């Protein structure tokens, strides 16, 4: 799939799912109890469940991928996600997630097993998310208005060579429910990282 806002193509991964793109809006729908998470209390390895993803290899160098995300919340842990994959068992999610009874900004970083952290609660079903690469590190931000960005997390993942070849894109999940639909619009890709992670820019 080609999006006019992105300088790279997107390919589907995970379970087969309907992805559509029209008038600048990417829409994805997942099925029942689809997730991408390896519980930290369980054995290392691939998640027993999986969620549909649409990913492409970002151009070399620093970047910012952002989108306004709207989630058709129905059940606990439904989420729309900006997703990052660097290697087998090495991936991360920046989510607008119902966690469990109201929307939160959440992050998951998986290195064989997943961690899980809530950042801040939001009102409504819509927020802006931004995933950035800076050298061989990554950063997550969120915004309620698309203008002022709140720092959520920074981390390294994989080797520097793997980080440089990362695939990025979009994921939809419904770990406990019967399915979820997410729309991503105002998608933006910038071939540069944020100048300052904590100044709101």
From TrEMBL:
The record's Pfam families line, in alphabetical order, gives: DUF1349
* Stretch list, region Disordered: 34-53
Top-level taxon of origin: Bacteria
Entry's Gene3D superfamilies? 2.60.120.200
UniProt protein name:
DUF1349 domain-containing protein
């Amino acid at each position: 799939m080609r999006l006019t806002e992105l300088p790279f193509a997107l390919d589907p991964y995970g379970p087969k799912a309907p992805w559509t793109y029209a008038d600048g809006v990417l829409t994805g729908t997942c099925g029942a109890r689809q997730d991408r998470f390896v519980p930290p209390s369980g054995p290392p390895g691939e998640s027993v469940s999986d969620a549909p993803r649409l990913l492409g290899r970002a151009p070399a160098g620093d970047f910012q991928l952002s989108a306004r995300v709207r989630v058709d919340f129905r059940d606990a842990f439904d989420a729309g996600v900006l997703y990052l994959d660097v290697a087998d068992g090495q991936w991360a999610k920046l989510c607008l997630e119902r966690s469990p009874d109201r929307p939160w900004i959440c992050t998951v970083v998986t290195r064989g097993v997943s961690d899980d952290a809530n950042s801040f609660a939001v009102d409504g079903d819509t927020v802006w998310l931004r995933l950035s690469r800076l050298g061989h590190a990554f950063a997550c931000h969120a915004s309620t208005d698309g203008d002022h960005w709140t720092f959520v997390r920074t981390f390294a993942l994989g080797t520097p060579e793997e980080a440089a070849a990362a695939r990025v894109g979009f994921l939809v999940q419904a770990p406990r429910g019967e399915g979820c639909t997410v729309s991503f619009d105002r998608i933006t890709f910038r071939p540069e990282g944020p100048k300052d992670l904590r100044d709101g820019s």
